[in-house]
Structures are given as structure tokens and as C-alpha cells.
Design goal:
- The structure is a single chain.
- The protein has 814 residues and is mainly β.
- It has four domains: 123 residues, Neuraminidase (6 Propeller), CATH 2.120.10; 138 residues, 6 Propeller (Neuraminidase), CATH 2.120.10; 98 residues, Immunoglobulins (Immunoglobulin-like), CATH 2.60.40; 349 residues, TIM Barrel (Alpha-Beta Barrel), CATH 3.20.20.140.
- The chain is built from eight helices and 56 strands.
- It has a 17-stranded mixed sheet that branches. A five-stranded mixed sheet has the order 3-4-5-6-27, with no helix packed on it.
- Helix 7 packs antiparallel against helix 8.
- The protein is globular.
Amino acid sequence: MTRRVFAILALSLSVAVVSAGPSRYGFSDRIERHLFPEVTTGPDNPSWSPDGTWIAFSMQGDIWKIPSKGGEAVALTHGPAYYFEPAWSPDGKSIAFTMDTDGNLDVGVVSSDGGVVTRLTDAREVDLEPAWSRDSQDLFFVSARGGRGFDIFKLHVADRAVTPVVSDPGDQTQPAVSPDGLTLAYVSPVQGKLGTGGIWTRPLAGGPPTLVHYEESEYRMRPHWTPDGKAFLYDSDDMGSNDVAIVPATGGNPFVITNDPMGEFSPAPSPDGASFAFVSNRTGPMTLEIAPIGGGPLGSWRHLAIGPRRAAVPTGLVHATVVDAYGAPMPARIEVKASDGRAYAPDGGFARVIAVSETHYFHATSAFDLDVPAGPLAIEALRGFEYRPATTTVDVKPGATANVTLTLRRLVDAPAMGWYGGDTHAHDLHQGRFGLTHRTLFDESLAEDLHLTNVLIHMDGTRIMGRWADLTGKPDPLSTPTHIMQFAEEFRGSLGHIGMIGIKTYVLPLTGGENNTAYAQVASDVPYLDGARAQGGLAGYMHPYTRASQNPAAPNPAQWDGSLIPVDVALGKGDFYDVESLYSDELGSAEMYYRLLNCGFRLPATGGTDNFPDVWRDPPPGTDRTYAKVSGPLSVASWLAAVKAGHTFGTTGPLIFLTVNGREPGDELQLGASAPTEVTVKVTVSSIAPVDKLEIIVNGVVGPPIPIANTPTYEGTVSVPAGGWVAARVVGPPSKHIADSYAFAQTTPVYVVRNGKTFVSQDDARFLAGVVDAIWARTMRSPWRSDAERAAFKAQIDQAKAVYVRLAGGLPGS
């Protein structure tokens, strides 16, 4: 997909350009999915009333409060805006919050008894994370209005005057005012360290900051002063799961006080200092818990149930069921819009957003219940790319239950033709706040009708993303004969990422080119590409390129120096190439794909999403997927064999079936010297989203667009006088039914061999030789651990360069 924002990590020459995710607010995906507040189906961000009798929290897009000893939960806000991050004023009269309205994040306030919401900020830059001064006259908040990332500002509530408070390099977030009102705590980067920063303090009257505590964090710390001002409660990931920890305000060794295998977040000390509230994801969605200030195991927690509830507007219940054409229950992705314009998800569900279209969704196994504002409710059910979306509208009556059934009918039955859709690049845990289990993960894939989900365990910074023990080389026990989930590995190097699927053991280390670690040097992909093959698996290229040539008439080889793919392919390595991926641009990736094919390399076209299924602001697995034509019953081995043979196409949504003289993608068509120069191309396209055009590609030359909106089947001829390859692709506009940026599908070619000779484009070979030179120019000053390591890497560069020089018939000018 085309990235709207790019986050450049220019830490050294060994660090590649990392593209950011689809952006609603104009920031990287990491910021938008981890720093920014999220819509949750359970309680989040608890905040005590000053007298300790109430706890405010956010849930389902509103601010609620509940007696701290338990009882009825009362909503203080209602749509159409979403409300998050409540902060109870020290005088007890008001609750400030972050609000999402008009496509932006702002700070607002409401009476602690509910009522009219007052929007306090309306700058075009995002404002969030409000924290009160001790006299309840000012709000400290985080904003991008400084133009250099996130800084901390102070807003005087009476006249809305805003003044800067902390404007250091990097992002300053999560402000908290000391009990005596004299010191501000916040989170800010620590030079030379990974993560989003440590806990700092700064006198509000002026003075230098003091680093209290550092650990590799991901916008999760949210420090809160204890009432005596002597310590901070904060969220720690040092033990491999998010836990509440306590550290002295003057610095020192922290203690973890909620050591549970799942995650605990957003600790808030009670006003008397005897206990603290927090949220836990041990059951999946957030639950509200209270524990003694000294912490303790699960048995010492007091669960605060959120029910009964008193909403701010009349509500009703919707009971919905999704079925197939025969009436059998069917898992699906669900999108709803209520009468207030907001999206809702069932209690206990996982509310998520496809950021590229700002579409809210959740997954359902079949039946689900929704408590929503009275009035018309629009519901849509989707299931992958082979079923037509089903939509309906129901009129929700106050206090009543409405029953609705959505029927999903097939657009095409690809498995009946031997084609099975899978994802080469899904993920598991990635620091999201939802308590993702194997069951939840599998149910996501089932609802998306993914027949093979390759879940890649990887490393982000120095932290493992996933569960070490999941990589067994066997399908997960939840798998069925038609829908398989199997864990695999991703190597995240500074010059591209390698996916290893169908493997039994890890190829280590999991990372390379990571500054401030023992693996800061550039790493070769070859051990990973070879390591997967040695185990009987496949290794391929994830999210290859983020953009097409800036000047197609005179492409610059240096633009393509961020990936080792041209080196690896020249060395005979690599089993597949994800033309479609959320974290790359399909047209840009296709441009390099065609150049590699034009040098005689046979590389299957595939698709892999690179989604994070426990993160709320991310698309589902199978957003980008690979269709492989399997011989015999579906299994991991048969699907991988089909990919290896190139019987594939990659897609963001459209299904495209190609034959050339009756041959299918990955096949070879041998023609004699006297055979006709023209071959017959047949293409059939089916798509749940609009598509504009079909294009036939011959030896890298994209043919004239063929309109297919009303004629999904095409038959014609193309000329291949010198042999080479013939492939097809389909392109369409953005669509709410496409979770990537636009509709796109690319087949693997049918390879045409005329008179026994392989077609090679000398121009493309020369260009790729230049790309290899550019890669070495980028990496030659990497912090190599030894001269031998540098020499070994350079030898691979030289070997790849020699391949392209040979294919070009010599250097440029030959």
C-alpha cells in the first residue's frame, strides 16, 4: 500500500528507512496504535475521585464512573464523539479527557455528575493525555502543536490560554503532577537507548530534568505519583508481559507488584495510598481491578464488575446471527454504525479499526449481542474475498431486543478449483492491550476465511513478539482440515525482513542492524534464506518496497538501496516475493519484481499482511493474501509446495485467474523457433470491491488497460517473439471492502521459453548491478564486528554484482 507518512529512523547508515502505517492523524502507525487512546469494550484508564468513593474510566467510547466499592456504572458522555483518558480534578468537580471528534484528538471536560461536554482545545494538531494541576485551574496535556513531535503544554481552563512546558528533543508524553504541585513527571527519550523513553521529573518553577528510571518502553509507562509523593506506579514490560511496577521518585530499583502472565495497565493510586486501580487483559478485554498498594498475586486483587449500567441516552439490544447460504452459523468480520454515528462492539469483544479507511470492526464466531443507542443501526458482515458482503439496517427500540440475521453468499468458490488463500505474513502478540489467546488468534483467521495463516514470531527492539514455544513445525492444535494456523519466524534486518514459513526451529538471531545492541551491524539474509530451506521450509521477502521510481524515465538505483533482495536473488536465494503487503506499495514492489523476472529469475508472486492482531488500530489477518493452487488435499506441505512452484497470485482483494496457452502461473510454456509469436491469454476476475482495469504484463512491459468493470472475463493474444514471461494484474480504487490502500492483484508469470533460450533484459541487469553498488555504498561503514565479517558480506555483494554484469553482457555501454 502507499504510505501516507514515513518515519525515518536515521540512527546510522546501517538502519533502513522504516515506513509508517496508515494514518488518520498524520503520525506513524506505532504512535497511532500505541500512544493514542483506543476504543475498548472493557474499562480503561481508571481515575479516582479525590474522596476515593468513585472511579472514572473509559469504555465503548464514553467516560463512565462507578462506586469504588462496586455498584451501578454511570455514563457521563454520549456520542457522536469518542471519549478516553479521564482525569478527575483535585477539587472533585470535573473530569477532563481526550476526545475524538471531527477527525482529530482534543482535550475536553465534563462535570463529574455528567452533562454538557466542553471542548477545551481545537487546534488542528492532536491534543491528548490531560493531567490536572493541584489547584484544578490548569491542565497539562500532550500535543504536536510545537511542530517537532510531541511536547507538553499547560492550558489555563478559565481563558483557554496555552503555554509550553516541556519541549525537549523527541516525544514528551504522559504528564503527571506531584501531590505538592511543584514537580512534573513525564516520559521522554533517553539518549542512546531503545524504546520510547524513561520516567523524568522537572520542577514546574524551572530547572533541569532528572531521569528517574529507564527501561525499553512502548508508550505504556504512564507514571502516577503515590499520594505521599515518594514513588511512582508505572507500567513495565521488563518481565516479558506488561506489569504494574513501583519505583522511588528519586530513582532506584523498581519492584514488579502485579506479576501475572497476562498484561496489567494504567495503574492509578487511591487517594489514601492504600490501594491502586488498574486494568487487566487476562480474560481478553480489559477488566477493572483494585489491589493493595504493595501489590500481590491475582488472589489479592478485587475485581470491580462493570454492571449494571446507566447509559446517558436510551439504548436497546441487538441480537445478530451470521449464517451461510444454507443457514449454518458462519464466523465473520462485523462492521456497525449506530444512530449516534459511532461504532460499537459486543462486551468482551475486540473493537478494532482499519486505519486506511477508518472502518471500525470486530470478529464474531456467528452470533453476537450489541447494546447500542436507540435508533437505526447499520450492520455489515464480511468474510474474506470469496463471499459477498451482507448488509442490513435494524431499528433499535429503547429497552427492547431486535433480532437480525445476515446471510453470506459466495462470490466464488476458490477451494473447489484447488485455490486456497493464505497469509505469508501474519503476527501474534505485538504489545497490544487486548489479551490475545491462541483461540482468539485462530478465530480472527477463521472469520477472515484464511485457509493457512503463517504466524511469524519476531523481535521488536530487544523484545520477543510472540511466544517462544509456539514454533513447533506443526499446525496449531486448533487447526481444522480446511483452516490451518502454524507458527513460523520473521528475521527483521535493517536491509529488509525475511519470512521463514514451514520451519521447525528458529534461525538466530532474530534481528540485525539494531542500534545499541550486540547486533548493530548489517546482517546478511543468506543464513535465514538457507536456514529455512534446510528445514524443508520456504523463505521469502516481506513488504519489499515502499514506493515506485520517483522518475520512471531515469530511475535512480540508490532509491532501492534499503533492501538486500537484488543481492539475495542473484545468489539464487528466496522462495517467494510479497508483492502485496500493508507495509509496502504494491506498484513499487511490482516494479522491482518485474526487473528481477527480466533477469531470468523465477520468483512466485505472493501476498502477506504484516498485521498485529492484538493491536486495536490494525487491519485483520488476510488483508493481503496469497492464493496457491494446491495439488490434492490442503495441508501445510501441499500449500507450500504450490507456492514454491509459483502456482500463485497475491492480492489485496480481487481474485485473478490466468492462463497462457492453457498454462497456469508458475508453469513453463516451451515454444519452438518456428512457433507463432503470439500466445493466447485468458483472465477471469472476481472481486468484492470495485476494480478499474486489467493489465497484461509481458517481460515487464505493462499493456494497455483493459476495462473489466462489467466484463470480468478477458481473452486475447500477446506477442512474445523472444520468449520471456507473461503475467496479469488488476488494479482498483480504495474501497471500504479493501483493508489495504487500494485493490490490487498480481499473478506469478507463465514462463515462455522459445527455442530453449531464457529471456534476459540487459537494461534491467545493468540497473540491478547499480542497485547492488548502491547497497554497498550504504552499508560499507556499518559497525562491523570484525574485518572477516565485513569481507564475507562484501563477497556476497561482489558475487551478486558479477551475476548482473554477466547477464548484462558487461558493464554499461556493452
